[in-house]
Amino acid sequence: MARRADPSDLMIFAHVVEAGSFSLAAERLGLPKSTVSRRISALEAALGERLVQRTTRRIVLTEMGQRIRTSAEQIVHEVEVVSALAEDSQVTPSGRLRVSMPGDLASIAFAPMLARFAVAYPSVQLDLDLSPDYVDVLADSFDLAIRIGGEAIGLRLTTRHLVDIGIGLYAAPSYVAAFGEPDMPRSLDRHGLLVLHAGGEAVSWRLEKGAQVVAADMAGRRVSANSYDLLLRLARAGAGIAALPDIFAQPHVASGELRRVLPDWRLPPAMVRAVFPSRKLMPRKTRVFLDELLSFLKPRPLRTPSGDPERDAIFRAR
Question: DSSP E strands: which ranges in the chain?
Fold first, then answer.
């Protein structure tokens, strides 16, 4: 007859399954690998069945392991809810807040908001990951991720729409003086193009003008990079025509370093979203960060500018 399973061992089992290995689970839990292995063995002994098949590279769940996985994950979830309740009871948000966001967006658009948050909440240790790749919010223990695009998310994650960013074509006046300005999308094949690439492939330009939609000829692609910041710098230096978020380009249009090309045509806007774990109660430190971000992005009448050129440019372009 099987003995009663220890709930703490079930939680360790859930972390092992999520991490995909004993070593990584031990690292995230702050426990020795030998302790994690011993607790899983104790759980298997209590249940009277093996839960995982260990290999040199990964673990494979047995049928019994698959059956108890959901229950083990639910225990972890309920503990997180209790922890969130305790954290929410604090008057002052505190603790480590791990946030992932694209580096270009952080440095060019969100820097004023991040600075204000750091000053307003000194008890929160803000850890920013600016990797261009999407992180695994749950597996890598992030509290919040800012993502551009509308890709699907997992069932254990929640999403919040933040803002839609307009994208247009920009070039330096020096480039236009040297090579001329295209008058129609089909003219782009005679120009040097500075193109974003994602997943190793250049992102094609789908230009829209009212009901008209034209796929630009990308034969003139001169440079592709996975950094809007680099494309912006190249465009300012006169290297070609770049498709850039308006929030990045507007300050340089105002200074005369860039000008809009084909101003009647636009690329589809980029949707910016916040992604975070699906919890019944969001930790207070995460909630105040999200509130600050939403306040920063909230549209205001143009007659009363916010004082932040980067922020105001978001809404001039919308």
Answer: 52-54, 59-61, 95-100, 124-129, 144-148, 157-171, 193-198, 201-202, 206-209, 212-215, 221-225, 241-245, 259-261, 267-277
